[in-house]
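Can anyone check this?
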Amino acid sequence: MMETMHYIVESIDGDYANLRRTDVQMDEPKLVARALLPEEIQEGSKLVYSCLQYELEE
C-alpha cells in the first residue's frame, strides 16, 4: 500500500522546487525537479504525493 504525503511548495528555483511536508515534521525541504510536478504550481501551492506522482491538492 502506498503512503500519501502532503507538501507545500516553499520556493521555485529554475528547474527545481523546494517542497516541505505538511503532514510530518521535516528538518530540510525536499528538492524536486519541476518536470515531476504539475505545470501550474507556484510558491504556496499544496501538493499530494501518492502512487508515485504529485498532484495539486483540491
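Reply from J.R.: I decoded it. The mean pLDDT is 94.
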